[in-house]
Request: fold
Amino acid sequence: MKRGRLVSLFILFFAAAAFVTNLIANCSDRWWVNAREGGEKTFRRAGLWQVCFDMYRHRFDYYGKIYNGCWWLFSPEIRMLRSWISNYWLRWVQTLSTLSLICSLFALGSSINVNRQDNFRSARHVLIQSSLHIVAALLMFCTVILFGVDGKRRDWMMNWQFNWFGWSYKLAIVSCILQFIAGIFSIYQGSNKYLLDMYDFIKEEQKLEKLSTLKFPPLPHTGVVERNG
Reply:
């Protein structure tokens, strides 16, 4: 049980770390940043839900509005840019990342619930916890792959050759790895608990006792003749 408790604490630690890194990656705006010298500096950085410009004027904005600062992607201030910034692949990234965050939250709650149990009474709870961790990790894996492939598209942000992935994107990768580790530990713990629950120790002990104990039949009673002299 000491080993099981230690593994459960490891799972809780990785689950908490994965959720925190997932939350920070989702909320921050450093997924795609202007990181190289050269070109115009009108684009500064972009996240899943926020974009920042520096004295930028969109070529199809006939009113000549200058965008300087950071905005939420659904802000009415940048409604003229929304169809360009929030395209189909970014909406997929937002959806997958949000689902990953929700699964990570439920996985963390499940890990806390398992740690509150005495002697790990339910293997089902541990296996449910492992499923949540794996699903959250797979969703985040799809998120970073999709953003990594389409984030470099020339038709998304201007001066694409001078931009690169920021620390928010790297933090999402870390969250994915931590979630996978928590899921692997959960599968290990849940499968061990399931096998222990299916194994009847009393019955097996009785079988071993029968096999290891040799019972000899009783000797027949015979009279003893005493001779005197």
User: Anything to note?
Assistant: The CA atoms of residues 123 and 193 lie 5 Å apart. The mean pLDDT is 83. The chain is about 55% helix and 10% strand. The beta strands are 32-34, 43-46, 50-56, 67-72, 163-165.
